[in-house]
């Protein structure tokens, strides 16, 4: 008996449901960009090394080029398209805008999604490779420029906008940015688009 190589899956993205058939080898990035026309997430290397494709999966950052679409079923997926509330940008988006945290903008959606993940990870007390005191009782280390650079090191910027990116992440973190994108996505459109792509 021949094994099936495709399945019909339902992805919950930015609070909306999308049902579509996919080849099992389809990455989440390709499903977003090529099948669902959500082109905010960018394809840079397509092998997990540049971070341009970063999205949030249940609030945690992941590179969508290494995530199979079928494995993303049942999770809350947040892309850069789902961050703003109407005309109001997410605070991290606003900080990037205010501080020129970009030049060509190609890496920016991934940088912003990653920054949201960084702020949440830091607030939760996760240490990084440059954290001096990693004892749990030490709590979150100060979110210094070195901490931000290390935590954002998976996101490359060919334009070299790093100085402004670090400033933008620091400003958003200092402003107490809520990274609760899961709640925001869950509260999204009541008009789910099941069957929108067949
Ligand atoms: S496109 Fe996914 S990490 Fe580069
Ligand atoms: S702003 Fe151009 S690659 Fe980062």
Automatic annotation (TrEMBL):
Q: Tell me the InterPro entries matching this sequence.
A: 2Fe-2S-bd (IPR002888), 2Fe-2S-bd_dom_sf (IPR036884), 2Fe-2S_ferredoxin-like_sf (IPR036010), 2Fe-2S_ferredoxin-type (IPR001041), 2Fe2S_fd_BS (IPR006058), Aldehyde_Oxdr_Iron-Sulfur (IPR052914), Beta-grasp_dom_sf (IPR012675)
Q: Is the Iron keyword given for this protein?
A: yes
Q: Name the UniProt key words of this record, in alphabetical order.
A: Iron, Metal-binding, Oxidoreductase
- Region Disordered: start-end pairs: 177-198
- Give the domain of life: Bacteria
Where in this chain does the record put each 2Fe-2S ferredoxin-type domain?
Answer: 7-83
Q: Does the keyword Metal-binding apply?
A: yes
Q: Which Gene3D superfamilies match?
A: 3.10.20.30, [2Fe-2S]-binding domain (1.10.150.120)
Q: Which PANTHER family match?
A: OXIDOREDUCTASE WITH IRON-SULFUR SUBUNIT, OXIDOREDUCTASE, IRON-SULPHUR BINDING SUBUNIT-RELATED-RELATED
Name used for this protein in its record: 2Fe-2S iron-sulfur cluster-binding protein
